[in-house]
Specification:
By secondary structure, the chain is mainly α. The protein contains 11 helices and no strands.
């Protein structure tokens, strides 16, 4: 079991991550994975977040499954590429040192945080090589770092999807790759009984985060809150690089 001292900050991290997800629909892993990697190591933190991501997406599918089904035609090239990238990333997670994983995660966080903060997504055609490459990269990052969202956010923004379709497509993609990653991690032994028991211990933090986010929804400016979240992930990326170098 996780010791009480790191358990308290982990509880707060999960609470904050679920608050961010409820408010913005995006970004819980961006916040939770790097901070937990600093406390527990990347090899533990990446599979650990998948337990919560699966719970979140099962809830989303239960609520919006019918609406998401209509976007499968547009999403299937992304999904195929993303699912192909997950096992490659998972093998890197198992083979690489924790120091290397933290350094790679730190660099990815810094780059994607800056791009998302500055809204530098290129204007891209829908479909084609850009979609396949972004899906493959997102799947690889899901398996290796637990962070598939940023490449998808940049791609869909660059392709000019309106807000509703953007949200549905990214939810559909993240649901598929995270569920697949969870199954692959179980098969590979990265998620075991002890990890699941530890995750159950922190379920109250997830529930409280959802409640707090629901009450704050509509009262907080989403754009400002998203910038704050990405600022935190940028700082977390820098801290990961420092801990990797140390």
């Amino acid at each position: 079991m996780i010791d009480p001292f790191p358990g308290i900050p982990i509880f707060l991290i999960i609470f904050a991550a679920m608050l961010v997800r409820t408010l913005t629909g995006f970004g819980s892993a961006l916040l939770a994975v790097p901070l937990r990697s600093i406390l527990l190591g990347a090899k533990y933190a990446v599979p650990f977040i998948m337990v919560y991501e699966v719970l979140i997406y099962l809830m989303i599918l239960g609520r919006e499954g019918r609406r998401l089904g209509g976007d499968l035609v547009a999403a299937w090239p992304l999904l195929v590429a993303g699912l192909a990238g997950v096992p490659i990333g998972a093998e890197v997670l198992m083979a690489a040192s924790d120091r290397l994983l933290k350094g790679g995660m730190g660099i990815a966080l810094i780059v994607f945080s800056i791009l998302l903060l500055r809204d530098l997504g290129a204007k891209l055609r829908r479909g084609g090589i850009a979609s396949a490459a972004s899906g493959l990269l997102a799947g690889f990052l899901c398996g290796s770092t637990g962070l598939p969202g940023p490449p998808m956010a940049l791609l869909l923004r660059g392709q000019g999807f309106e807000k509703g379709e953007f949200r549905r497509l990214i939810v559909l993609f993240l649901t598929a790759v995270d569920l697949f990653a969870f199954g692959y991690f179980l098969w590979a032994g990265l998620i075991d009984k002890e990890m699941i028991n530890n995750s159950l211990f922190f379920l109250p933090a997830m529930v409280l985060g959802f409640i707090a986010g629901g009450r704050a929804f509509g009262r907080v400016d989403e754009a400002s809150f998203r910038r704050l979240t990405l600022g935190i992930t940028l700082a977390a990326g820098v801290l990961l690089l420092l801990t990797a170098a140390w």
